[in-house]
Automatic annotation (TrEMBL):
Gene3D superfamilies: 3.10.450.60, Lipoxygenase-1, Domain 5
Recorded family membership: Belongs to the lipoxygenase family.
Claim: Signal is one of the keywords in the record: no
SUPFAM superfamilies the UniProt entry points to: Lipoxigenase (SSF48484)
The name this protein goes by in its record: Lipoxygenase domain-containing protein
Record-level GO BP terms: lipid oxidation
Pfam family, one: Lipoxygenase
Superkingdom to which the source organism belongs: Eukaryota
Residues of the Lipoxygenase domain: 1-446
Length: 446
């Protein structure tokens, strides 16, 4: 895909098929701190927000985790990071269009609600501040926390509690390949004191820890299981949501594979309950990954075969499909810097009608920040030289005939889905390839 994808795909559609497709949700009631009115967004009186919300046509993206975060100083200049609220409408021609943007959480006279009808540079700057906020939300929540760090929790607990002869170990160990190594490198090269994210992102340093803490408090088991997450966000029937379409198919394929293997070894719920090794595995995850917070919905123990199957499906999906969805397209969307600025060096407009082209250029990051950002995103998006696609198991941990047959069926289903995704993509102006099984790594390895 061209590095100019960020120029091609409309602003609204990036919330569906860009690198952060998990934030958008259907809006049934406006937040109290987002006082959008009908006359703002429907000046001709042809529609109303209440009716459009009732029809399911209004969507919200809320970057509240970024509110009040201490921002970085880069090249001796204070940087700016907003916590916007974005309202979008599904149009009659099935497009998702932004209709209102508020760049700070608290309504105020100096915090206007920007609209598509505003002067060109007001509206463009508002969208750029949203895209910059999305960079931090994506990198720290959707990418680092919800794939890299969670995959590490699952892997460490597996190595600490489950012996190599155990079927769960055999099932999951290929899906931990390089995860600890890549996270070690990330801690040293990206988010350390001298790491590129720390030095060149608006949320680098102290702000990063604030955002990670807030994001962790919002992680739920539901949000990690794509069928539940799609339902909870109310986006089951949004058109052209290829992350959802491909992700749900992948979940079902992984689920069938996991179910076959688990049910081969566990004939009833009692056998699961009495397996002390898998109970230690989940207990360790609950305690050290989720701080023993029952409100997350994460199991504290396994009481049934079905519960174990779902959790293991989530673990494999997180390290393969979900990571690919939020990682592989980073350079496609961030290679065009104005589409995904790491940082912005001027505050947003406080009044309408004063922004100009010069304002825009003075707001965008310095050249060295842009270069560092593009180089980092290119490296993170690059397929590894010893890439192992989802479903390929060169080490052959299973030797019994039945589990090996499950693996063959798993591979065949993935190949079929890959063909269907490629066929669909031939008809798309901007193909969605990030969850094509052929391009999915078995684990968080990059």
């Amino acid at each position: 895909m061209s590095k100019n994808t960020g120029r091609k795909i409309p602003f609204g559609m990036q919330f569906l098929n860009g690198v952060n497709p998990i934030l958008i949700r259907r809006c049934t009631e406006l937040p109290r701190n987002f006082p959008v009115t009908d006359c703002m967004v429907f000046p001709r009186g042809q529609m109303s927000l209440a009716k459009e919300m009732k029809k399911g046509n209004i969507f919200l993206c809320d970057y509240k985790h970024l509110d009040g975060v201490k921002t970085n100083t880069i090249n001796g200049k204070k940087q700016y990071l907003m916590a916007p609220l974005v309202l979008l409408q599904k149009t009659a021609d099935e497009k998702l269009m932004p209709i209102a943007i508020q760049l700070k959480q608290a309504p105020a006279e100096d915090n206007p609600i920007f609209l598509p009808t505003d002067p060109e540079y007001d509206w463009l700057l508002a969208k750029i501040f949203v895209r910059s906020a999305d960079f931090s939300e994506h990198q720290l929540n959707a990418h680092l926390l919800r794939t890299h760090l969670l995959a590490e929790v699952f892997a460490v607990s597996l190595l600490r509690n489950v012996p190599m002869v155990h079927p769960l170990y055999k099932l999951l160990i290929p899906h931990t390949r390089y995860t600890l190594q890549i996270n070690f490198l990330a801690r040293n090269l990206l988010i350390s004191k001298n790491g590129s994210f720390t030095q060149f992102a608006a949320s680098g340093g102290e702000g990063m820890m604030t955002i990670l803490g807030r994001s962790l408090s919002a992680v739920t088991y539901t949000s990690l299981c794509i069928p539940d997450d799609i339902t909870e966000r109310g986006v089951q029937d949004v058109p052209n949501y290829f992350y959802r379409d491909d992700g749900l198919r992948l979940w079902e394929i992984i689920y069938r594979f996991v179910k076959g293997v688990i049910e081969y070894y566990y004939k009833n719920d009692k056998e699961v309950q009495q397996d002390t090794e898998i109970q230690k595995w989940i207990s360790d995850i609950f305690e050290h990954g989720f701080y023993s917070q029952a409100c997350t919905g994460v199991p504290q123990s396994f009481t049934s075969v079905a519960q174990l199957v779902k959790f293991v499906t989530m673990v494999i999906f997180t390290g393969s499909a979900q990571h690919a969805a939020v990682n592989s397209g980073q350079y496609d969307y961030g290679g065009w810097m104005p589409n995904t600025p790491l940082s912005l060096k001027r505050p947003p407009p406080t009044k309408k009608g004063e922004a100009s082209e010069d304002t825009l250029l003075e707001t965008l990051p310095d050249v060295n920040v842009t270069v560092q950002g593009m180089a980092t995103l290119w490296l993170l998006s690059k397929q590894s030289s010893d890439f192992v696609p989802l479903g390929k198991y060169p080490e052959q941990h299973f030797t019994e005939e039945t589990p090996c047959e499950f693996i063959k069926n798993f591979q065949a289903e993935l190949e079929d889905l890959s063909r269907r995704i490629k066929a669909r993509n031939t008809n798309l102006e901007v193909p969605y390839k990030y969850m094509d099984p052929e391009k999915l790594e078995n684990s968080v390895a990059l």
